[in-house]
Structures are given as structure tokens and as C-alpha cells.
Specification:
Helices cover 23% and strands 25% of the residues. The protein is of the alpha/beta class.
């Protein structure tokens, strides 16, 4: 009887164990049904993490559907095209809301045919997205802080880089890391975000690239002149390893405790504004 109880307990533990160990600090998304940018894929990320002696675990789409925020502090998502299920997207958002960091290499989740902007699901993460071409001119002050002043950008001299304009919803703080010749400040190709509001305390970053053909080409309406451009997301540039690594470290090195005071700035006369104080503990200690 004791042996039977032991085996029943053992089977219960096995059946309910988490898919990923909490000791694995980095999750790397890779699934045969999802296309990454050919110039920088999950295998490139794995090679970098291996060189840095960082523990990692690959996660496929089924793994995303059971993703829990306490299994890792960072998810790296090399992605261009492929449909995420509603469950996977909900888990991804919940992971981020509970403090899990996200580094996207390429583009935000989009659905069905690659339609620039139209089918983009960036709003689920409270981020906006659009595209613009630009020329790299250096690092911003925040770029030097996160990426290091010694990052060599000479590879991009004279090249037109595909930019992905990314901005967080208020009250999140968006940092443009790359100086460029665009008239719009919010046209960065590399972005770091300190999350507040619903994503209190988490961090997000993206190395944007524009790798999908225009809607007219995809639908066969007519063929526009178009050339694939990986932007800064290419292993041909020696600095990409340093950029991915430094962004990962920035995401992981967040404050252990985050706090925020939420209030309604506009209210009816005579009605007191609602005030809510939130504190989140990201450390391993109670």
C-alpha cells in the first residue's frame, strides 16, 4: 500500500510539473510553423547564450499556450510571420503583465497574410507600430547607456535601414536607442521600454526589421518594387551580438520592486478622484 501511494504521488508530481524549470533564465521561441528573419534566428540567439554560459530553454507555440510568468524573467521572440492562438497571446500578455521581460527580434505578432500595420497585434502589448526607412547616425544618450558607447555602427554607413516605429502607451517610457536622419523622433529601429500601468515593472525591447512584402504583392493585386531589408537585425554586422546581449541584460536588470500611483486626472466637480497605489515585488524573497 505504501509503495502504491508513493507511485501515485510520483505520477501526480510528474503530471503537474511545470514544462520549464524556474532555473532557466531565458526562453527562446522557435517553432516550425513560425518564420523568423533569415538574417537572425533562434539559432543565433542560442549560440550567443551558449557563449555567455547562460541557461536557456527553447519554447514552441504549444509552450507559449502554457507559459507562466514565474518560469522565466525573459522571453526572446525572433519572429516575422505565423499565427499565434488566442491562448498563446493571452499567456504572452499575462507573462509581461506579471513582470516577464520580452525581447522581440523582428516584428510584433501579426495574423494571416503579412499586411503592414493592418493585422499587427502590437496593441495587445499596449504598443504602437509603424514603418519608416532611415539612415543610422549614431547612438542616443540612452543608447550609449544601454548598448555601450563602443558599439561600432560603421557597417551601416550609407545604408538605408528598415525602421519600426514603436511607442508604448502612457504611462510607459519609450527610449529611442539609435540616432537617425528621420524627421520624426519616434522612428527608431531599436527601442527599449520601461513598462508601467498594466505592465508595471516589466521591460520590453525590440530590434525592428521590415521583412514582409507589401499587401499588394501578397494579394497579387500588382507587384510593387520591393527589397527585403533586415535593418540592423543581421548577423553580417558584428555588433548584433553585443546589441542582443546588452538589451537582454537591460531587461533582466530591472528594479526588484516597482511601484505606481494611479489616479484619475479629470473628474466631475464634487467627486473625489480615485487613487490606487500598486507595489509589485519581483525578487525571490517575500
Amino acid at each position: 500500500m505504501k509503495l502504491f501511494k508513493f507511485w501515485m504521488f510520483f505520477l501526480f508530481v510528474i503530471a503537474n510539473r511545470p514544462i520549464f524549470s524556474a532555473a532557466d533564465p531565458v526562453l527562446v521561441f522557435q517553432d516550425a510553423g513560425f518564420l523568423p528573419h533569415k538574417d537572425y534566428t533562434a539559432e543565433d540567439v542560442v549560440r550567443l547564450l551558449t557563449e555567455k554560459n547562460v541557461r536557456y530553454r527553447k519554447i514552441d507555440h504549444a509552450g507559449l499556450e502554457s507559459l507562466s510568468w514565474n518560469l522565466s524573467k525573459l522571453l526572446i521572440l525572433p519572429y516575422v510571420r505565423g499565427n499565434f492562438s488566442k491562448t498563446a497571446l493571452e499567456r504572452l500578455v499575462a507573462f509581461h503583465q506579471n513582470g516577464g521581460g520580452i525581447l522581440i527580434l523582428g516584428d510584433f505578432p501579426n495574423k494571416d497574410k503579412w499586411y503592414p500595420l493592418r493585422n499587427m497585434q502590437s496593441s495587445l502589448l499596449h504598443l504602437t507600430r509603424s514603418s519608416e526607412g532611415m539612415k543610422v547616425e549614431g547612438l542616443t544618450a540612452k543608447g550609449k547607456e544601454i548598448l555601450g558607447e563602443s558599439l561600432d555602427l560603421s557597417y551601416f554607413d550609407g545604408k538605408n535601414v528598415a525602421g519600426v516605429k514603436t511607442t508604448a502607451y502612457p504611462p510607459g517610457k519609450t527610449y529611442n536607442l539609435i540616432l537617425n536622419n528621420s524627421d520624426s523622433w519616434a522612428a527608431p529601429v531599436v527601442v527599449a521600454v520601461d513598462r508601467k500601468g498594466n505592465f508595471l515593472g516589466a521591460r520590453f525591447a525590440i530590434i525592428g526589421a521590415n521583412g514582409g512584402e507589401p499587401r499588394e504583392n501578397v494579394d497579387g493585386a500588382y507587384q510593387m518594387e520591393w527589397e527585403y531589408n533586415p535593418g540592423m537585425l543581421t548577423r553580417e554586422w558584428e555588433g548584433i551580438e553585443k546589441m542582443v546581449w546588452r538589451l537582454s541584460q537591460w531587461i533582466l536588470n530591472r528594479l526588484e520592486i516597482a511601484g505606481q500611483i494611479d489616479l484619475v486626472p479629470v473628474h466631475r466637480e464634487g467627486e473625489g478622484p480615485s487613487i490606487n497605489v500598486r507595489i509589485k515585488n519581483f525578487s525571490d524573497q517575500d
